[in-house]
Amino acid sequence: MCRDPSCALDMKKLLETRTNAAIELRRRLGLPSSHTNAYRLVNSEGDRLSGLIVDVFGDLAVIASSAAWVENYKPEVEACINRIDGINHINWRPSVDILKEEGKDMSGMKEVHPSTCPERTKVMENGISYAISLVGQKTGFYADQRENRQFISTISNGQKVLDICCYSGGFALNAAHGGAIDVTGVDTSMPALQLARENIVLNNLDPGRISFLREDASQFMKGALSRNESWDIVILDPPKLAPRKKVLQNASGMYRNMNSMALRLTKRGGLLMTCSCSGAMTQSGMFLRVLQGAASMAGRKISVLREAGAASDHPIDPSYPEGAYLSNILLRVL
Predict the structure, then answer these.
(1) In degrees, to the nearest 5, what angle opens at C-alpha 283 toward C-alphas 96 and 250?
(2) How many structural domains are present in the chain?
(3) Quick check: 40 and 60 in contact, CB under 8 A?
(4) Is the pTM of this model over 0.70?
(5) In terms of residue numbers, what domain contains 76?
(6) DSSP state string for 120-132
């Protein structure tokens, strides 16, 4: 893993060297800052530490392990992250299914030293406060969409905004923060919506201007279409529909159907920000073609205004293109 003779076969030295490089890169990107303390510190292959992800949330680091070597060197990894200034807690989250494929069965493993890490914490991103749950999805917060959320705040003034699959309300909160006159977030997860509603209070937002509903995304969109509702800006950020290449064709149909409804809910001349976090879809290069098919289904014309991926604290190694998983496309809808 290391061509530098000074750290050959010395895992402690290797971890320190590459973690220090990751810290320096984030510092150059302005992370953390007075208005953002939630970010990705280590992004697996992108930081030359394959199978290791570290997300920082204030004084807490969440370590996501998906490689046997990370588990084998868990004390060294924890010690390396613990010594970082400002980190007071560590939450270790092994990817059990992936590790099992590597021959590392975690099912019978018990914590030797039970974690004293809190289950909830509060963070700030671009000046917006979030309550996050460390027993929630992924590492607890989707820092990869940070720059895309901020972009939404810059185009929402005076607009009516719909955030579908809103999780804890990231895009919705940014829209409200940016001056949207009416914001609706929709998700099926009650724990996520509880966080979203808590986030309204945390940010002193007018609950008359922003609300969150618990409903299946497709059912909500069908109902809204039957009521002839429409929005100036629609955000569609569904969960991973294509976890593997072999289900890509089936997932393409689901993406097409969901985006077709989202396009019909977008006012003519309005904007749809649509996302795919499925690596298989992003790497296939098919997403734009799927969106064109969705537009034909919806009887709409679309033009691409912006294409983006994960935030800049999610570096990608070009020799590992599988690291590019997030597609975020802004469309004008006519």
Answers:
(1) 75
(2) 2
(3) no
(4) yes
(5) 5-118
(6) EEEEEETTEEEEE
